[in-house]
C-alpha cells in the first residue's frame, strides 16, 4: 500500500446505544495507527463516547485521543476545509456547509457511506457502487460484510495473535477478571451478557440456575438489568452486585472501556452480544456466541439474522446447527430459552471448535480499514 498523506473525516451521529460511536471510534483509531492517516472524527454526542473512552473531555469542542482529532459536531458549522476522504457513518446526513466545502475543493473528495453490517447476499452487488451526488461530488456505498466482495469487518492488526496469547495464559485472564472484582470458580461456565430488554431471559436464567454445573454470568450495566432485577426479585442492580441462585451466580459489571471489553469476551466461555460492534468482537473472541440483533421496523432484522445464521452454521452437524439456530431464534423472539440452551450445551465441544474455525475463516478477508484505504487507492 503506498504511503498516503491524506486527511480523512469521519462523521458519526449517535442514533441510540453505542454501536455508532463504537464502530467509528474503532475505525478512526485503526486508520491512524495502521495507515498513518490524519483522521478527524466528528461526533454529535460525546456522552455516549465517554462510556467507551472515559479519557475524553465531554466539554471540549476539539481534542486529540490516541492520534485521532475528535471534534464535537457543532450546531453552527464553522468554515471548514473538506478532507480528501469523507465517511458518513450509517447514512448520517452531513452538514450542508460541509457538503458545500466538499464541492468547492479543486479535487473533489472520495465520499463514502459506511453502511450497516449484514450477511445478506445483495450486499455484494451494492458494495462500492455509486450512490447519490451532491453537485459534482459522488457518494459511494461501502458495505461491511462476511463474504468476499464486501468491505469486510473491522479487525486490528495482530488482534487474533493478542487474543490467542491472552487465552493461553490463565494468569493474564485471572488478573484481568480480578481487576473487575470477578472471582471465577474453576468449574464454572463463564458467560458475558450484553443485550437489549428480553422476555426470554427469565427462562434462560432458570435453566442455568437448575443446571448440574455452575454458571457465572457477567452482566455489564445496561438495558437488560430490568429483566434481571425482575427475575432476581431485587431493585437497583448496579456494578459490583453479586447474586447467587442455586447453580447460577449473577454479577453486575461496570461498562468497561472498549479495549477491556475485548478482554472480557476473550475470558468468557460464551458471549451474548448485540447490535453490530460487540457482535463482531465476539466472533474474534473465537468462542460460541449468542446475538441479540438490533430490532428494525417490519421485522427486517429477522432476515438479517437468518442470513447470518445460514452462513455461520455451515460446517456444523445438523444437530449442532439446529441447536445454535434454535437458541438464537428464540432469543431474538423473546421466547423460552431452556430447551434450546440445554441442546446447545450438548454440542459444546463442536460449537467451540466451530467458533474458532469461523474466526479464522473471517480473518482471511481484508479488514475493513484496509479495504477502505484500498478503495481510495483504486479510486485515485
Ligand atoms: O450499543 P449497540 O446496541 O449499538 C447498536 C447497533 O450498532 C445497531 O446496529 C445500531 O443501529 C444502533 O446501535 C444505533 O451494540 P454494539 O454495536 O455492540 O455497540 C456497543 C459498543 O459498546 C461496542 O463498541 C462495544 C462497546 N462496549 C464497551 O466498550 N464496554 C462495555 O462494557 C460494553 C458492554 C460494550
Automatic annotation (TrEMBL):
A Pfam family of this chain: EarP
GO MF term set: protein-arginine rhamnosyltransferase activity
Keyword Transferase in annotation: yes
Domain of life of the source: Bacteria
Catalyzed reactions per annotation: dTDP-beta-L-rhamnose + L-arginyl-[protein] = N(omega)-(alpha-L-rhamnosyl)-L-arginyl-[protein] + dTDP + H(+)
Keywords from the UniProt entry: Glycosyltransferase, Transferase
Signal peptide: none
InterPro entries: EarP
Family of the protein in this entry: Belongs to the glycosyltransferase 104 family.
Protein function: Protein-arginine rhamnosyltransferase that catalyzes the transfer of a single rhamnose to elongation factor P (EF-P) on 'Lys-32', a modification required for EF-P-dependent rescue of polyproline stalled ribosomes.
NCBIfam families listed in its UniProt record: efp_Arg_rhamno
The name this protein goes by in its record: Protein-arginine rhamnosyltransferase
Native species: Pseudomonas silesiensis
Amino acid at each position: 500500500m503506498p504511503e498516503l498523506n491524506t486527511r480523512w473525516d469521519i462523521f458519526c451521529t449517535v442514533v441510540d446505544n453505542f454501536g455508532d460511536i463504537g464502530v467509528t471510534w474503532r475505525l478512526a483509531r485503526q486508520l491512524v495507527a495502521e495507515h498513518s492517516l490524519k483522521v478527524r472524527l466528528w461526533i454529535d454526542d460525546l456522552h455516549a463516547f465517554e462510556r467507551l473512552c472515559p479519557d475524553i473531555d465531554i466539554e471540549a469542542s476539539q481534542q486529540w485521543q490516541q492520534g485521532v482529532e475528535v471534534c464535537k459536531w457543532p450546531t453552527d458549522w464553522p468554515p471548514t476545509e473538506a478532507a480528501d476522504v469523507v465517511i458518513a457513518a450509517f447514512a448520517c446526513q452531513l452538514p450542508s456547509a460541509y457538503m458545500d466545502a466538499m464541492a468547492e475543493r479543486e479535487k473533489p473528495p472520495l465520499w463514502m457511506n459506511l453502511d450497516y453490517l449484514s450477511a445478506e447476499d445483495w450486499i455484494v452487488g451494492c458494495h462500492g457502487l455509486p450512490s447519490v451526488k451532491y453537485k459534482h461530488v459522488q457518494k459511494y456505498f461501502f458495505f461491511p460484510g462476511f463474504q468476499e466482495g464486501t468491505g469486510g469487518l473491522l479487525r486490528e492488526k495482530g488482534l487474533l495473535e493478542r487474543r490467542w496469547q491472552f487465552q493461553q495464559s490463565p494468569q493474564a485472564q485471572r488478573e484481568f477478571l480480578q481487576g473487575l472484582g470477578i472471582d471465577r470458580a474453576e468449574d464454572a461456565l463463564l458467560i458475558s451478557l450484553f443485550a437489549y430488554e428480553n422476555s426470554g431471559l427469565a427462562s434462560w436464567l432458570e435453566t442455568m440456575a437448575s443446571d448440574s454445573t455452575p454458571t457465572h454470568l457477567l452482566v455489564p450495566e445496561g438495558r437488560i438489568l430490568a429483566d434481571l432485577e425482575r427475575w432476581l426479585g431485587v431493585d437497583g442492580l448496579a456494578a459490583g452486585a453479586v447474586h447467587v441462585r442455586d447453580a447460577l451466580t449473577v454479577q453486575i459489571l461496570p461498562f468497561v472501556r472498549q479495549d477491556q471489553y475485548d478482554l472480557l469476551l476473550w475470558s468468557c466461555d460464551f458471549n451474548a452480544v448485540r447490535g453490530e460492534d460487540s457482535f463482531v468482537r465476539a466472533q474474534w473472541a473465537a468462542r460460541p456466541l449468542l446475538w441479540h440483533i438490533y430490532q428494525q421496523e417490519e421485522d427486517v432484522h429477522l432476515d438479517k439474522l437468518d442470513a447470518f445464521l445460514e452462513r455461520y452454521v455451515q460446517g456444523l452437524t445438523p444437530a449442532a446447527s439446529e441447536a445454535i439456530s434454535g437458541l438464537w431464534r428464540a432469543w431474538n423472539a423473546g421466547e423460552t430459552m431452556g430447551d434450546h440452551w440445554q441442546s446447545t450445551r450438548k454440542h459444546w465441544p463442536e460449537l467451540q471448535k466451530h467458533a474458532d474455525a469461523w474466526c479464522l475463516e473471517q480473518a482471511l478477508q481484508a479488514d475493513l480499514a484496509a479495504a477502505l484505504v484500498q478503495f481510495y487507492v483504486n479510486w485515485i
